[in-house]
Amino acid sequence: MDAMATRTLIDFRTDPTCYKHWRIEFDGPVAHLIMDVDPNGGLVPGYELKLNSYDLGVDIELHDAVQRLRFEHPEVGAVVLRSGKDNVFCAGANIRMLGQSSHGHKVNFCKFTNETRLSIEDATENSGQTYLCAVSGPAAGGGYELALTASHIMLIDDRKSSVSLPELPLLAVLPGTGGLTRMTDKRRVRRDLADVFCTTEEGVRGKRAVAWRLVDEVIPPSAWAETVAKRAREAAARSDRPRDAKGIALTSLERRIDGGSIRYLLVSVDCDSEKRRAVITVHGPTEPVPDSVDDAVAQGAEIWPLAMARALDDAILHLRLNEPELGLWVFRTEGDPAAVLAYDAFLETHATHWLIRETTHFIKRVLKRIDVTSRSVVALIEPGSCFAGTLAELAFAADRSAIFAGEASGDNKPPATLTLGAANFGTYPMGNGLTRLQTRFLGEPQSLAKAQTAIGAPLDAEAANDMGLVTFAYDATDWADEIRIMLEERASFSPDSLTGMEANLRFPGPETMETRIFGRLTAWQNWIFQRPNAVSATGALQRYGTGQQADFDRNRV
Amino acid sequence: MPDGMTIDYDGLIPNNVDLATDQRVRKALETWHPGYIDWWKDMGPEGFQQSLVYLRTAIGVDPKGWAKFDYVKMPEYKWGILLAPAAEGRTIPFGKHKGEPAWQDVPGEYRAMLRRLIVVQGDTEPASVEQQRHLGATAPSLYDMRNLFQVNVEEGRHLWAMVYLLHKYFGADGREEAEELLQRRSGNQDTPRMLGAFNEATPDWLSFFMFTYFTDRDGKMQLEALAQSGFDPLSRTCRFMLTEEAHHMFVGDSGVQRVVERTVQAMQQAGITDPTDIASVRALGVIDLPTIQKKMNLHFSLTLDLFGNEISTNAANAFNAGIKGRYREDKLDDDHALIDATYPVLRCIDGQIVEQQAPALSALNMRLRDDYVKDCESGVGRWNRVIEKAGFGFRLKLPHVAFNRAIGEFAAIHADTEGNLLDGTAWNERKGAFLPDDADAAYISSLMVPVHETGKFASWIAPPRVGIDNKPGDFEYVQIVQ
């Protein structure tokens, strides 16, 4: 059975009362994020999630838990990832699930799990919420990849527990959820040892795991509980998160799907399957900025930047997984640019407050999702829109953008403008470590400097075009036709080549671990996922568990 | 020059594998040897290392040669490397390489799999010696003490057998694993043995008999499956180990039977008609049948866990690769490939125990376990005949396979010994009725007093019908030197 073919709607919204696979236990400033996968709780029928193996459903809960720990628990300074099962930490992605999934599902699953793992590292780096990992029982494949997201990996030295990346020898695929990259780029494991490790099915345990830098320490069982607790307390003590603050509730996100129309409070999506296009409209703020940061906390999840980001995040995930044929996303905005800038200013003023910090980092992550989405993205800057500051990032994230020049007849909407804000110059770095404007102007530093001088000034079509901030400017005479032709043309190209081209053009400049994960590791993985050695009826993924070895085409390509 | 049948006793290590001309392996084993002797002295039978024990030592690997009896101090026992004779022109009997010549060297692609199987098997051998090391002090007779030590030295030899394979065929990794086999300790929190049942204590002699009956029988099944291996040195090693393992089965089988015999005899003599009248039976200084049943329940269920998950990719891989076969593979009449075959497996679906057909390759653990359960029944039948002949209605019975499990399908549920599901509360309430509790343990422990006089036996166990090596009843099987 094919997960995508059934078109079961995959819902990314969940909360701890619905978790099947995770639980969170709190111990003052330490939270224990415990993986205890329900073997019968798979997202679709056809496989059992044995040995703490996971599918997208398990990861959706993990993603939710990580998010909630950040927003709902300012008092938590350290999170310990651990297993709720006695004999296994985590066996990685479920092989039967991979075997029965379409290529598209595998790719999307992998992308989401990668994003979730990066969000764990983001919490450690930017939120003062340090993730540690307590590996008891084997951590194999995706299980070790999950452990790799932690800043400190502890392995119980019980002669049974091990870490391994057995994908290559066992399944003829790669440890594609960041495994190869984190090993070399994050933990700086020597490449030849990494080579040995990744071809040794049973992995490495005990002191060798430390010597090879695969884990940070091994701990005898008699000292296990105590040492894990101690490391967690130490990490929590280093946190700058406020112990006495109260978190906000990430309340259930309201969403209405009606045919091709998806409505959130602040985001609307209009799907047109015939034109293979989704128009995503983000609504600017209508409420004034809070009087104080306390007021912002009181508003909780309702405050505009957070509510907008949550809706946009869900819309992106929903469209990626559930609407694979809508290959073109058109970003629009509606609202008052000044109001957006006012919120940006509020976020900047209170940048060090825990909730504000979480909010901007969340927006950063949502924007990064767009960067790695395999859809053509076009931003249309029209009269009445509010591409300012934070929302201007949508235009810079797009593969191309067009701004409406002059006034539209018979329309009393304010003219289209693009307004830069401080937020465009450092708040929301891409995976390559640069801002979208830095990336855009990689070859023209003068343009970047000039843009900086324009902060706060609404730029009309001509100015925006002159400054290289948009791709096209069309006036009323041309707009409708030019846009129609552009979108129709775009939707006509091969989806594969577009995905490949966009993924290349979006990330010029320096490589980071993150860009290497998405651009190198997953690209190779996705190639392997298409190859008969992995996925044909006699390939390793299909043969896994049957006892029969795969038949390989021995030609090196 | 050994012909593979006689054993070379000239060197430090008796062997029939031509160690004299295999410098590399001989050196490796001689390097390992002192560590082994240290381990034996530290962790082998406590308190009787200087005693002279009437032990059998193999002097040849043919049926006539492998049982020569003499008095020996255990640390001076001739542990050696003994392989069953090579079968001329042997081919791989099953899996995808079926019909190809059996491997005399490890195929690179199966190296890790083979090493893992050998290490796990090897780990159980010293483990049981460690588990049983205190039992000498409470032996119910010199006969039993000798049997215990025979089992112990042979488990030690089985460790040698596995270590030889590791040294000979697995290079530096193999040597490292061989070293670790001496480092792990049964029941130690920090350095436990690899399998659960081998970290449980063997606190008393009834446990010892149950262990040798049930748990060593798992060893037998594993050895039987490995004896079929396409990797010929492993096959030959295991074939010879099985001849020794048979004695361990005998110790357990006859041991439990003698306990049962003594119990029914005492009941008859005292005129007790109700075997479940535990207090009255215990007043006779024998072990009541319900407690024997509880011990069976414990050891049987712990041992079932050793068979692993019912559905197992590792087992499927090992079979298809020609590494580990089925019980008596050579006697089975099918294609020995099992690609399209199915096998019925008991599974736990939505909290219910149901039988499902599963791919036969994936279900090999289940199949071996089924064969094991059948094999267990034979002894239970014999024990029951003793009870029946004595005129009691009580019958011992193997518990349901779902009972008291920590690994596999039934790990997540509780079931009684009949296989009826119980919730957590019911389980906690009734657990004491199924498994030995503290009071049972204390009672059995109170019976564990040593009997060192030749020909005498503790109150709770009957003498054997026949002596070892046909020795008379008053033979001094152990000359105790403290």
UniProtKB/TrEMBL annotation, chain B:
Key word NADP present: no
Keywords (A to Z) from UniProt: Oxidoreductase
Any one GO molecular-function label of the UniProt entry: oxidoreductase activity
Enzyme class: oxidoreductase
Family annotation (InterPro entries): Aromatic_CoA_ox/epox, Benzoyl_CoA_Oase_BoxB, Ferritin-like_SF, RNR-like
Protein EC: 1.14.13.208
Protein name in UniProt: Benzoyl-CoA 2,3-epoxidase subunit BoxB
Species this protein is from: Acidiphilium iwatense
Species classification: Bacteria, Pseudomonadati, Pseudomonadota, Alphaproteobacteria, Acetobacterales
Gene encoding the protein: boxB
